[in-house]
Amino acid sequence: MSLCLAAGALVVALGVDEITLRWRHSVQKTLWEEVWRETPAGLVLTEARIEGSGAGMDPPDGARLIDGFWRWTPKLPPQREIVMRRSGATADWQICIAGACRPMEQHLPPEADPVVLKACG
Q1: Under a CB-based contact definition with an 8 Å cutoff, are residues 10 and 112 in contact?
Q2: What is the 3-state secondary structure (H, E, C) of the chain?
Q3: What CA–CA distance (Å, rounded) separates 85 from 21?
Q4: Does residue 73 carry a pLDDT above 80?
Q5: Is residue 53 over pLDDT 70?
Q6: Which of 7, 27, 67, 121 fits a disulfide with 112 by CB distance 3.0 to 4.6 angstroms?
Q7: How far apart are CA 116 and CA 7, in angstroms?
Q8: What is the pTM of this model?
């Protein structure tokens, strides 16, 4: 199993079945992270993390503060794909694999929009 990033005809295989999507909120500048894993049922959001709260971004009941992040497991059914938009008005998405984070532009050109995270194949 492997995850891919796709934008139009461009497809980049990431060679892993779990990644973390990371971005900064455009107003609060607070770091958000989501851990996505490929499963036979689809893409599963296994953990969400946020550095703080504000501007409608409060962590839900049951979130735990660990190492400076509020962490929780969202109750979201498996997804077929995750669509990410890139406006250019905010910092680009980061793709983290095994703890190493790289900007989306190191995987796909900056003008590639939207970008879809999905299972390869």
Answers
A1: yes
A2: CCEEEEECCEEEECCCCEEEEEEECCCCCCEEEEEEEEECCEEEEEEEEECCCCCCCCCCCCCEEECCEEEECCCCCCECEEEECCCCCCCCCEEEECCEEEEHHHCCCCCCCCEEEEECC
A3: 13
A4: yes
A5: no
A6: 7
A7: 6
A8: 0.89
Residue 54 DSSP label: -
Tell me the C-alpha distance between 56 and 71, whole Å: 16
Q: Are the C-beta atoms of 7 and 38 separated by less than 8 Å?
A: no
Q: Is 5 exposed, middle or buried (0-12, 13-18, 19+ CB in 10 A)?
A: buried
Distance between CA atoms of residues 35 and 114, nearest Å: 20
